[in-house]
Structures are given as C-alpha cells and as structure tokens.
# Entry
Amino acid sequence: MIGQTWFSEIREFTDEKTGRTIRQLTQMGNNIHLYFTENSFDARENFIIFRSDRAAGEDHAPHEDACYNLFRMDLDSGNIVQLTDETTSVGSVTKTPDSAIIVYSVGNQIKKLDLYSGTVNVVYEETGHYSVGGPSISANRRYIAFSRNERVQVPRGPNYTGFKESFYRIKDGRITLAYLDHTEWLDVFKDTHWLGHFQFCPDDSTLATFCHEGPWNLVAQRIWLLDFVSREAWPCYRQDEQDTIGHEFWTQDSHIFFDDRGPGHDGTITSSRTQAVATGTAVNENAMVPFVGLANRRGTLVRRVDMPYYCNHYHANPDNTILVGDDVDDLVLIDISGDEAKLEVLCHHRTSWHTQSSHCHPTWSWDGSRILYASDVGGKINLYLVAP
# Structure
C-alpha cells in the first residue's frame, strides 16, 4: 500500500576481513538498489530509492518471480516508505539525481512517478512484439529513451541462462524515445543486433550511449554513441580482435568508462565462480593485461589504466580517482589517481552471484562519501552501506 511505513531495520557489524563498519540497511524480503549505471542515492537529501518485495505478502527466493515495488529509505532514521503499489513487478528503474522524477518499467508499460506529488503517468506502452529495456532520462527532463528488442524464444533463468542464445537470435533492435508528457514516441535508431545498456549523457540531451549486447567475447563492437539530432551512431573506442569490452557507464563529468578484459572473457560470473559462456577461461585468467578506459563524448580514448585485478563491475567516485569494484569474493577500492592502479580490500561481500539481482553492483554516493551494494548472503538480497 502506498505510504505504508516500515521502521528501521539497520544493524551494524564489523567486516571480518578489513575491520570496517558495515551498515546493513534492510532485513525484510529481497531488496535491490538501482543498477550501477543509475544511482539510488539522492543528490540533495539523505535517502535512497530501491525495489523490494517486502509488500508482496509472499516469501520468495531471489530467483523466484516476486512482485517488486518502489520504496524510499531515509538513511538517518532508517524508515522505509512504499512509493508504488503495482500488482505486476517493477523492473528497470531510473531517476533524476534529485529523485523528483522516477521512471520505471512494469509489464509492457513505462511509467513516470512524481516523487513529491505521488502522481503516476504511463509514458509508453508496448503493443508490438518487442521487449523493452531499461529507460534513461534526458538531462533536460523532457523525454526518456530505451532499447526495444524483438521477442525471441530462449531459455531463461539465473546464471545468465539464455545469454548466448539471445545474442544470436535477436536481429531487430531499436532505440526508442518517448516524451515525459506522454504525448509522443518514436524509434530514433534501428539495428540488426540485440541492443542494451542505453544511457543518456549526463549534461547533453542530444547524446547517448548504447551497446551491442551479448557475451563480450562474441561482440565485435560493444559501445556506441548516438546523436539524437542526426540519428548517427558511431563506435566508442574502436575494438580490435583482442578486446572484450563492457560494463560501460557515464561518469559525473561526462566521460564514458569501460572495462576491457581481453580474449576469452564474456563479462559474466556465475554462482559456480565460473563464466557462463566462455567456460574454458577462468574469471581471473587473462591473455593480456586488462585495463579500464575513459573515453570522451566523441568516443576517443583519453585515459587508459592497466588493471591487473579482476572485478565484475566498477564504479567511479566523483573525480574519477578511485574505483569501487566487486571481485569474486570482496569489494575492493582501486586508486587510479597515479600512473599505476593500487588495490585495497574494502570488505567481504559474500554474495552468491546466482541472479542479476544478487550482483553487488557497488555504487558511490553523489558526493563520494559512501558506497551502496547488495548481497544475498543468508539467502535474501539485502542492501549494505560502507564508507571508503
């Protein structure tokens, strides 16, 4: 029920590896923060937006079909307030930095929630044979855009089931724009690939990135830039044969960050601590020195940092000097302010990697003072906060 409140579930404990104080924020149901390309933190006030199945009235394991809704947690009091009451599970979520506008997918619709008035409007409804990807809000707050891909028959389940099959079978992918006043929508770009990871540039409403989705070792060119005026797309960091690239995101200063692991890496990790598709290569086995890169808005590499460590995802602090990463068992801090990357273990995350939702996806707060992450240690997905 919208407005229902749960009192604080916060508890603190000492990390077994580093001695840091960890704040466990949630203890009821499964709780998932926004994807690492987004940001659950509010940029002005001390709260986060997240998804939870706590109001569903049923006890589900993370891999089961629970009904998620949106919630707001006050990080001072720990109190949690329900924001939506959808009967179909809320999927992908994005928001403005100040959280005034929250956009989410539910069923075949994309909806806009005004956080302060509580008004909900349908922005887009899919009536064709397409699956709708995660939306992103333009900097001018006038429209959203998202990927749409033809629906294909593939196996589905945890541990990236159907990942390789989707890559081969999807031949119709689109980038679609919809106005937030729900007056109009149009396909801006069409491709013959599975498209995903759509993200607007933080300060330019005419510029965005998307990716050719699939196992990284099978994708010839992962990241693409898209000009919404000319509708021209061009590659961001032109890949060579050795490159396997992914997990890109826009930094706060409008650079494009990406991870290049080299041959034999598909960008996955499973609950068996193996890759899902490129099973012949261990997750931390490398034929070349992996690196992370920063590209400018034309797609040109402006900085390369060799990364002789394994992490599944990275996220950069506000000035791009420190990364937080989730390796197989720990969260790590990687100082990239100098010529060589320096690693420090932050904490032991203990997640299973069984589902996408149980991936840690560590994310810096807007001011760089805290890191939010998820773990399903104990069986349910919960949210944790740690200071770097």
Notes: DSSP finds one helix and 31 strands in the chain. The first helix runs from residue 163 to 169. The mean pLDDT is 97.
